[in-house]
Specification:
Low-confidence stretches: 35-44, 415-420
Mean pLDDT: 84
Oligomer: single chain
Number of domains: 3
Number of helices: 17
Distance between the termini: 59 Å
Structural class: mainly alpha
Strand content: under 5%
Radius of gyration: 22 Å
């Protein structure tokens, strides 16, 4: 079967990508979820790299034919961040190999982000990519249901793609929930009922993963949906029903685990995070300029936790911002945050543009979905190391694409009406 795929399917798909580069982006999204090891792969002959090269080559040809190769603002800033962590890698304290592996991962993620920003050149295509993410996350979520309902796991921990693991999957579920809620408000029945079904599945997946960080993120997500809604009463009623659903179906273990948010000093996992955060700050104080190098936090931290119950354990910081400080210095954290904050401000700005009702409705839904999703990601980053999680770069790429589409629509409509 693999040989059949290699010798028949791959050439056909590559040919299809050359004619329509956007198809390659959809293939990359699907394979990203089905093949969890692809970002760590070193063999360039694997299908994922062939599709990536074909998509990138077709995209570059298209750019050269049209407006030339340009980079969105957030990607420019992230390229500076890539340079910063590359320099940090040259000064890695323990393992330069581990550091360069992380730099390589970021490089691939920025390529993905560039392709999304350039190829998703309409609200329809952005919508399609959003649904492809939903489909991929649904694929991983079915494993969480199987582990919890069939195998009897107290806490599901499925493997696979960007949603692999309970914390990563629950983050992906909460990040994409706003898109489903907004689609539920549309008049088209297939969107309304399909989104309602998926919202129920999403809530179930969040419960089965039993992630405390995801619970906090979900609470903030719901608050933002209400605040940003044009129909606050209807939205409040709907999200209240979601919370009631959570209260009714969440098992006792779920609420026991959520209560440890308030009594964190009694929970070993929560205490370990406090220890690691303090260690991360000490590492930054000792290596303030270049940090210890990407991927080196876990290698260095045992020297800073010797007098704790976690002595000798090679652990991540469980806080993205502290890990960025410790591994790359202040410049790494600042560039990373500036890229994200610039994106959030631009998403707010495009909603203020005067467009016709059809375009405005699409942009309103997509921009709010992306904005809330990125904020949710930042909240989760407070209790997890999310630097290399693909979903953020999907959201940043889609945001860049939406900003570009909106600017072009505004220019077109201004030109159309002025000529009229």
């Amino acid at each position: 079967m693999r040989l059949l795929f290699t010798y028949i399917a791959i050439p056909i798909l590559v040919l299809a990508i050359f004619f329509v580069p956007f198809r390659g982006l959809i293939i990359l999204g699907v394979m990203c979820h089905l093949r969890p090891e692809i970002w760590g792969a070193s063999n360039w002959l694997r299908p994922i790299f062939i599709f990536t090269l074909a998509t990138a080559f077709s995209c570059i040809l298209r750019c050269l034919k049209n407006e030339g190769i340009t980079f969105p603002t957030n990607l420019k800033i992230l390229c500076l961040w890539l340079l910063a962590i590359y320099i940090s890698s040259l000064h890695a304290v323990v393992s330069k190999s581990a550091a360069f592996d992380k730099v390589y991962t970021v490089f691939k993620l920025l390529i993905l982000m560039f392709l999304i920003a350039k190829l998703a050149d309409s609200t329809k295509k952005i919508d399609i990519l959003f649904w492809s993410l939903i489909a991929g996350i649904l694929w991983v979520t079915k494993s969480a249901y199987y582990e919890y309902l069939v195998l009897g796991y107290v806490r599901a921990n499925p493997l696979g793609g960007p949603g692999g693991g309970s914390n990563a999957l629950s983050t992906a579920l909460v990040m994409t929930l706003p898109f489903l809620v907004y689609k539920f408000t549309q008049k088209t029945k297939i969107y309304k009922y399909g989104s309602l079904l998926l919202i129920g599945i999403w809530i179930g997946g969040i419960i089965f993963c039993a992630s405390r960080g995801a619970f906090i993120a979900l609470t903030i997500c719901i608050a933002l949906l209400i605040i940003k809604s044009k129909k606050k009463i209807k939205t409040t009623i709907f999200v209240s029903l979601l919370m009631i659903l959570l209260l009714i179906f969440a098992p006792q273990y779920y609420w026991q685990r959520m209560r440890t948010i308030l009594t964190y000093r009694e929970d070993v996992s929560a205490v370990s995070r406090l220890v690691l955060w303090k260690a991360g700050i000490k590492i930054f104080n000792d290596y303030p300029i270049y940090g210890v190098g990407p991927g080196n936090f876990a290698l260095v931290v045992p020297a800073y936790t010797q007098s704790t119950p976690f002595a000798g354990e090679m652990l991540e910081a469980h806080n993205t911002f502290i890990q960025l400080l410790a591994e790359g210095g202040m410049q790494s954290l600042l560039l990373y945050m500036i890229a994200i904050l610039t994106t959030l401000l631009s998403l707010r700005k495009i909603r203020k543009k005067k467009l016709n009702s059809k375009h405005y409705e699409d942009i309103y839904i997509l921009s709010n979905s992306l904005e809330i999703g990125i904020i949710v990601f930042l909240i989760r980053s407070l209790t997890g190391t999310t630097i290399y999680k693909e979903l953020l770069y999907w959201f940043l790429g889609l945001s860049s694409a939406l900003i570009e589409v909106t600017n072009k629509l505004e220019t077109y409509e201004d030109s159309y009406f002025s000529n009229d």
